[in-house]
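Lecture notes, continued. The same structure-token format from the folding unit now serves as the input rather than the output. Read the line below as a description of shape only.
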């Protein structure tokens, strides 16, 4: 096989080849991931000592090389953010503001928590902050996407601000004040990878980001191999605010179910946001499992005792579950989002006896990137 050289910000961009290859095209909130145009890479490992990373194909042969995956960023650097804006960063940022919980979580995973001087409002509702970086809870708040504190953010004089897409106008205003601001939009797995690459390039943390990407790809490949011959149970995923809302096939949560070895009963729904359904439709689907979002406003007991679900297979068999949210919402595109599929694979396939191995993987992730053991929560 001819080796292909890839010039990229970090290994995560090359890893999208592996992610697309794992079971074909995967659905996400932004649509299906295109299949790779060359033979798919199935596994990956880092090369030793030369600043390169390699991607291996299913035969263990080198498929691609990412040059300088952990090379330092050279400043000044001009980046194109996820709003299509060109942002020039003159020097390595010493202080950061994050106005979005996903980018704040990413900053912790990249080892940047000590550089944060301001974060989004309601930080005390994010358990992962208290576990991994409790000092963040004492930082000034810059508000929310609906009520962003532009003046308060500017007063912190950060070297770099990271904001969600909804705050693009605020990013433009900060730029006018001479404060570089990156807009991120990590609303599905592919966009999350792009956001990781963007923040890593801006903050000179590409080696750490490559490590994060490699962890995700290895778990994708592990689950694909482990569940290749497993029977796929039908799964209904209920939304956070309303049991009668669900994620269709175009959403991130649907690909999470698929990677866990399940079949989303609502996969034919094309909405890119939570879709409303009826009890009649759920009974028609008759799912084997009902899975509640991690931050659902209702409980498993509420579902189990709902008279409208009498006769539903999942309820009759007691197979109503809730995705854990003790650290963060695994059913959203956070840096640890792959853990949603890892956990769910054990729940959907108890016959495989992989719960213990899955917990070891979850512990490894949080010990590596957040400095605490998940099992101790």
């Amino acid at each position: 096989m001819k080796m292909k050289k890839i010039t990229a910000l970090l290994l995560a961009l090359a890893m999208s080849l592996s992610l697309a290859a794992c079971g074909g095209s995967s659905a996400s909130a932004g649509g299906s991931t295109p299949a790779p145009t060359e033979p798919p890479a199935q596994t990956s490992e880092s090369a030793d000592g030369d600043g390169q990373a390699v991607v291996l194909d299913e035969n263990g042969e080198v498929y691609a090389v990412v040059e300088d995956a952990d090379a330092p960023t050279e400043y000044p650097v001009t980046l194109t953010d996820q709003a299509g804006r060109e942002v020039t960063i003159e020097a390595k940022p010493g202080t950061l503001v994050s106005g979005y919980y996903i980018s704040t979580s990413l900053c912790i995973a990249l080892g940047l928590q000590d550089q944060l001087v301001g974060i989004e409002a309601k930080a005390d509702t994010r358990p992962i902050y208290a576990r991994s970086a409790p000092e963040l809870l004492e930082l000034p708040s810059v508000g929310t996407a609906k009520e962003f504190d532009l003046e308060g953010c500017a007063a912190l004089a950060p070297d770099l601000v990271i904001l969600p897409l909804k705050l693009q106008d605020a990013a433009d205003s900060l730029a006018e004040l001479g404060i570089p601001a990156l807009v991120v939009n990590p609303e599905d797995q592919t966009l999350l990878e792009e956001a990781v690459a963007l923040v890593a390039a801006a903050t000179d943390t590409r080696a750490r980001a490559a490590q994060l990407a490699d962890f995700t790809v290895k778990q994708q490949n592990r689950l694909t191999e482990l569940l290749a011959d497993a029977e796929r149970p039908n799964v209904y995923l209920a939304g956070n605010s309303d049991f009668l809302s669900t994620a269709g096939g175009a959403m991130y949560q649907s690909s999470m179910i698929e990677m866990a070895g399940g079949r989303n009963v609502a996969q034919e729904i094309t909405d890119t946001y939570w879709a409303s359904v009826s009890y009649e439709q759920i009974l028609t689907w008759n799912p084997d499992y009902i899975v509640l979002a991690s931050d659902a406003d209702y409980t498993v007991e509420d579902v189990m005792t709902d008279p409208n679900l009498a006769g539903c297979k999942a309820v009759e068999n007691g197979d109503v579950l809730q995705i854990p949210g003790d650290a963060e919402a695994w059913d959203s595109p956070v840096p640890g989002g792959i853990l949603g599929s890892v956990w769910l694979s054990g729940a959907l396939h108890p016959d495989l006896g992989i719960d213990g191995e899955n917990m070891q993987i979850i512990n490894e992730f949080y010990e590596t990137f957040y400095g605490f053991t998940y099992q101790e929560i």
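Point for the exam: The CA atoms of residues 33 and 168 lie 25 Å apart.
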